[in-house]
Amino acid sequence: MIALLLLLFFIAALGIGAAWMAENPGSVVIHWFDYQIDTSFAFLLLLALVGMFVIVFFLGITRRIILFPERMLQQRQLKFYRQGIVQLTHGVAALAAGEVETADAHTRKAQKLLGRTPLVLLVSAQIARSQGDDAKTRHLLEHMLGHEETEYLAARSLSESASRQQLFSKALEMAQRAHAVNAKGFVAVVSLHARLGQWQEALVTLDQAVRKGQLTLSGRKRWRGIVHLMQGLQCLEQQQQQAAVTAAKLVLKDLPRFAPAVAFAAKAFAASGHKRKAEKLEASLAKISPVAWTCSACGHVAKTWTAHCPACGAFDTLG
Questions:
Q1: Single pTM value for the model
Q2: Residue 301: enclosing H or E segment and its boundaries?
Q3: Strand partners, 131
Q4: What would the pLDDT profile of 56-91 be if each residue is shown by its tens digit?
């Protein structure tokens, strides 16, 4: 409605202007070399408007001619992009159906059309993993680290792979990179610090997770107790009785009803000569000690508790 009103206003203004110019044509005299041109102002204005439209028309044609190769290239790239997306969609669908070879064929075609884009790398890595090709999977994940969209997933996957190979230093490096991209990755960092005996670093990571809102205070208390428990068990193995007792006190403060914590504390106090305290803890242990431990991540059943599941390596999942 507003556009129609503006159009009517423009037409009316144009008509009024034309009528005014007809009533007041004016005159213009132009001397150019030996020529004298007598004309009206209205005709001169019309001539200027026509000249302006002609110039704009030719500028538009020139611009189209200049940009024609670029537009053709863009249209070709768009065509390849659409074909690549179609091939990649077929690849994902085939992979979901368990047809790994078909998925690989479609993904190769998609790579030729799209290049080594993050999405193509992601699907290719999943196909390589399904084929059991660890070297190719690792190679593709390393390429994915260079893309912001897939950096977190690649770093996390490389960290998990290194952990399975007992390469904990490499796993920690990748876990820290993933954590830098996504604060939710702090659990892997805490777990690997604990595996490497870096107790203070593990506790600092827990404190940072609380400040960033990724961990509750009760959650920090639980994992802080687990870290102190692992530290205390290591101290017992190394015959460091006093350090083990110090760790036991911290563990009992955070995990007073956790059977492995109570069992460790009893051993630590017994090793340091505190027999009465050890006997008291052993008596309370009989009331809370479970028969077996089941991993909440993979379902593995273990007879004894460990901080990491013996089957899948998940941190603090035996319960």
A1: 0.73
A2: strand 301-302
A3: none
A4: 888 888 888 888 888 888 888 888 889 888 998 998
